[in-house]
């Protein structure tokens, strides 16, 4: 009897062991399944990182445009406190004799071909916290009738002020405006 029990019990153990191994195969993962899952997760992480990078880039671009508008606005405001034509002596296009820097400039065309880095605010104060930014200024005289650039202006003319805002070596935005002393 005991031999019978032994023989009879043995298949149950074997069957049980086979059942456990089968269950182990069902609940585990094959190498291929693990590799596929790794690839899928990798693609998902890459997509998420790309989305974050694109978002940061757009955010930085928006910030730079706003900063450039502000810095260009400072130059146009600063022009409002300068004279249209030099008030002293014989006016020339560009700085007159003895005007060595922005602190000496008193008419708008003195700013021609000037690069300010760090930039200035609308009162001429240097923005020391923005050392990587710059304001590049070009001033042109325009014929009021044709708006063409005058090489040798005389009489009444408009002034076109071009301001290019750079962040480091990169140009962020270019601005233009036309000023007149008619009004
Ligand atoms: Ca001048
Ligand atoms: Ca001047």
Description of the molecule:
The protein has about 180 residues and is α+β, with helices and mostly antiparallel strands. The protein has one domain (about 50-180). Helix content is about 40%, strand content about 20%. It contains two helices and four strands. Strands 1-2-3-4 form a four-stranded antiparallel β-sheet, covered by helices on one side. The radius of gyration is 37 Å and the shape is elongated. It starts with a helix and ends with a strand. One calcium ion binds near residues 92 and 94.
Keywords:
disordered N terminus, elongated, four-stranded antiparallel sheet, single chain, 183 residues, 2 helices, binds calcium ion, alpha+beta
Helix content: 40-55%
**Structural class by secondary-structure content:** alpha+beta
Whole-angstrom Rg: 37 Å
Can you count the beta strands?
A: 4
Number of self-contained structural domains: 1
């Amino acid at each position: 009897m005991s031999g019978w029990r032994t023989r009879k019990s043995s298949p149950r153990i074997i069957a049980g062991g086979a059942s456990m191994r089968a269950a182990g195969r069902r609940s585990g993962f094959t190498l291929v399944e693990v590799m596929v899952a790794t690839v899928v997760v990798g693609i998902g992480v890459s997509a998420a990182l790309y989305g974050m990078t694109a978002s940061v880039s757009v955010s930085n671009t928006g910030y730079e445009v706003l900063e450039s508008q502000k810095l260009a606005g400072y130059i146009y405001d600063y022009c409002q406190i300068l004279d249209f034509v030099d008030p002293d002596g014989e006016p020339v296009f560009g700085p007159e004799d003895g005007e060595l820097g922005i602190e000496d400039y008193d008419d708008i065309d003195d700013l021609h071909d000037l690069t300010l880095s760090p930039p200035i605010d609308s009162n001429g104060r240097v923005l020391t916290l923005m050392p990587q930014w710059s304001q590049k200024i070009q001033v042109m005289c325009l014929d009021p009738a044709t708006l063409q650039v005058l090489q040798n202006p005389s009489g009444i003319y408009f002034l076109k002020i071009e301001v290019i805002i750079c962040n480091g070596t990169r140009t962020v935005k270019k601005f233009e405006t036309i000023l007149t002393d008619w009004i």
